[in-house]
Amino acid sequence: MLRYIFTTMLCSAITMSYGQNKIKQYNVIRTSDVPKIDGKPFEKIWELAEVGNNFIMLQPENGTAENEQQKTLIKIMYDDNAMYVAAYLYDNEPNKIAAQFSQRDQINVQSDIFSFWINTYNNQIDQTRFYITAAGAIADSKSTNGGDDFSYNVIFDARSSRDEKGWYVEMEIPYQALRFAKSSVQDWSFNAYRKINRLNQSFTFSFIDIKQGNEAQYDAVLRGIQNINPPSRLSLFPYLSTQSVQFKNTNKTQFNAGLDVKYGLSDAFTLDATLIPDFGQVAFDNVELNLSPFEQVFEERRPFFTEGTDLFSKGNLFFSRRIGQQPFGFSSVYNQVDENEILISNPTQTQLINAVKITGRSKSKIGIGLLNAITKKMTATITDTLNLTNRKIITESLTNFNIFVIDKQYGANSSFYFSNANTLRSGSFTDANVTAFGIDHYDKENIYNYGANVKMSNRFLNDSTSYGFSYSARWQKVEGKWRYGISHDYIEKSYNPNDLGLQFESNINTTYISGSYNQFTPKGKFNNYTINYNLYHSRTNQPNTHNFTQVSLNPNFQTKNLWQGGGFITAFTREYDFFESRISLVPVLYQPKIVYGSYITTDTRKRVSLFANINAENRINNPEFRIDFRLRPSFRITDKLFIRYQWFWQKRDNRLSFVALNGEQTILSSRDTRTIENSIETVYNIDNTKAINLRLRNFWSNAIFSDNLEILKSDGSTIAFSEPNSFEPNADFNVWNFDCSFEWQFAPASSLIVFYRNTLSNFQNNPNQSYFNSLDALFQNSLVHTLSLRLTYFFDVNRLKKRELK
Fold it and tell me: Where in the sequence is the signal peptide annotated (predicted)?
């Protein structure tokens, strides 16, 4: 069956072609005079350019012509070095134009927006997007099939201005910021976008049908660009940094220097390298009390691993936080400290030595991604207090991580890929290799989507090799108001991609049936609404056991006054959980349950807005119960000062949970948990290049286990544990983090950051600790203070060469 699916889809990929009729065309002119980029496009040179007009509404009334009172005009010119764009964004109420200040790439604010989308390969897939707000903040992104990646950064200039008729934009987009083939006549496409914030309306130059396909399919043709050459692309980002860490009576200061390099290997492919990287100013992780059998996952915040990495998601083999994670042997060190010994040092993070990646997509729609990273061998140091000698324990070996992806796109949305992830460790540590193949196919009319993936893992142990296999297949209708689909996933017990990837479950066989009704345009009191419904069935492969089945209903809506809300209800059958026991193939049996919740968000255009949600869970014929609340008010004090507060509270009672392993037996007990989280984020934008950011978070969770312990039987049931209770599973965890930073982008891609952090955490086996008592105990510990300064400067080697020639 699987072979048949792949053969059919591959034949379709080879034989089918997709043609999209362009709605509009624009004839661009070459200019000999460079316009002054000041946001005032009234120079005579602009009068020679063709006028692009008749914008069409994207949201909420898709396809409606623009209002005469808010007309939009664009003009485009080019020369040997850059493309120039002017926009005239008229508004009959200019005093109501939203203009909240923000920093680069932060366009999700209360501001009007103009954006220019350029596709230099005219492949209906990729766009480079350039944004500017009415307040003058700029942003850029790489868009693939309509999804924005704002971690992508290039050098361009954009300015805006306002008068009694509306607001205006001028952009200079150097060819250095674009990738295109060398050709006497360029075949490019584009679109332009405008958002009027107070009206909740957005428009595009070329109409986009939101019910079908992706945004890049609707680009207009850009005619007339001739005899330009792609420039050489070499940029250097050297940095200097210093960091001082104070803890108790000790103070450690270190100085760092490193270099990031960006080099254009060709018109399509770029090499990025980071040498001796420093991530000391990356925001803190939201650490929680984790009593589950799975690791806690944190968001990637390091720029090198967030920018231009969309290709590496193919096959889900790459989880970048594996690179530089906590050393594998970090926890086991504490069990190796003998009597009369003291643990002197045990690094919590593996040091990254260097990393290199190559990414890009050719004119023939072939995308290639290659990433290689090397991390340092890490050791813990233990001192013998009797003879004052030290011994070291290796907690992580010298490791090389590598992932390679090749992706061939065809038609408008379809693609097939090959991906390989490889992990090599020095010494007697496990090596691993994982390979994935997949296809994602849309029919010619973009009504149906078909997909399949096959994955194989190999882990090379000291005395054997572990092989694993996984596959998935899906079919879905992706057009129209009524949408539906079915998917199937099969994962062998031995399939394990976690040396460089992230996967929680294995040994499962699941089927997922989904559907939705979508109202895309305004109707009654609603701008739009969606009703999702699904059925999920899960089985274990070995043994062939029914884990659980669930059915869900999930409505969501947005009203015409921009309130958003929704809810869900999910019913589960009885459940076999094969992971809670921590013993292979031994499940914990849970009774049926119902999970339900709802949320509401008020109009975010207002100075004060609020997000709130509530979720609950009830077991049937069982005392287990969970309820949680989240409140998140936001305050836009001025167009420069923004504050957001978040409060979270959760109560969970009578959860049958893992306590410990007693030989080959799993000990369980009923657990009550209380959790409170408070966080505050404050941003003060001095202007669009300077900002002060503050972020504070306090998280507390207390878990109390019943004294009535139970032994887990092989069928999932339990019997009483009659031996004396010698376990200490109770936990009280409290963590405090505070970050404060000042960032100044004093030149393109160049910045100065002053960063201060204090942090502390406390873990106790205290079963009767209240939140305030725990908080008091937390501040009995000493804060860790970190102060750092980082200076990064951008060198465009191509421009330096031009200056030398002059």
Answer: none
Q: Which helix (H) or strand (E) holds 15?
A: helix 2-15
Instruction: Report pLDDT for 6.
Output: 39
How far is Cα 292 from Cα 290, in angstroms, rounded to an integer? Answer: 6
Q: How many CB atoms lie within 10 A of CB 65?
A: 12
What pLDDT is attached to residue 374? 95
Residue of 351, 333, 330 whose CA lies nearest to 391: 333
**Which of 10-19, 135-144, 720-729 has maximum average pLDDT?**
135-144
Tell me the sheet residues that pair with 423. Answer: 401, 432
Mean pLDDT of the chain: 90
Which class is domain 20-228? mainly beta
Phi and psi, residue 778, nearest 5°: -60, -45
- DSSP state letters, 519-586: E-S-BTTEEEEEEEEEEEEEEETTTTEEEEEEEEEEEEEEETT--EEEEEEEEE--EEESSTTSSTT-
- Report the pLDDT value the prediction gives residue 802, as an integer from 0 to 100: 57
450: how many CB neighbours lie within 10 A of its CB? 19
805 contacts: CB under 8 Å, gap ≥ 6: none
Q: DSSP per residue over 60-120, as a string? A: SSTTPBPPGGG-EEEEEEE-SSEEEEEEEEE-S-GGG--B----TT---SSB-EEEEEEET
- Residue 232, CA distances (Å) to 105, 142, 619 in order: 25, 20, 64
- What residue spans define the domains of the chain? 20-228, 295-503
CA distance 100 to 109: 6
Give the integer Cα–Cα distance in Å for 343 and 334.
Answer: 8
Radius of gyration of the CA atoms of the chain, in A: 29
In which band, very low, low, confident or very high, does the pLDDT at 444 lie, cut at 50, 70 and 90?
A: confident
pLDDT in tens, 426-442: 987 899 999 999 999 99
**CA 630 to CA 627: how far, in whole Å?**
11
SS3 for 391-445 is EEEEEECCEEEEEEEEEEEECCCEEEEEEEEEEEECCCCCEEEEEEEEEEEECCC
Q: Is the pLDDT assigned to residue 252 strictly greater than 70?
A: yes
Determine which of 124-128, 415-419, 438-442, 664-668 has the lowest per-residue pLDDT on average: 124-128
- N- to C-terminal Cα distance for the chain? 66
Q: Per-residue pLDDT tens for 386-399?
A: 888 999 999 999 99
CA–CA separation, 358 vs 360, rounded Å?
7
In this prediction, residue 9 carries a pLDDT of 39
* pTM confidence score: 0.87
> Is 60 exceeded by the pLDDT of residue 12?
no
Q: Which amino acid is at 24?
A: K
287-296 contacts at long range (C-beta below 8 A, 24 or more positions apart): 287/699, 287/735, 287/761, 288/699, 288/701, 288/733, 289/675, 289/699, 289/701, 289/703, 289/731, 289/733, 291/657, 291/658, 291/671, 291/673, 291/703, 291/731, 293/579, 293/580, 293/582, 293/658, 294/504, 294/579
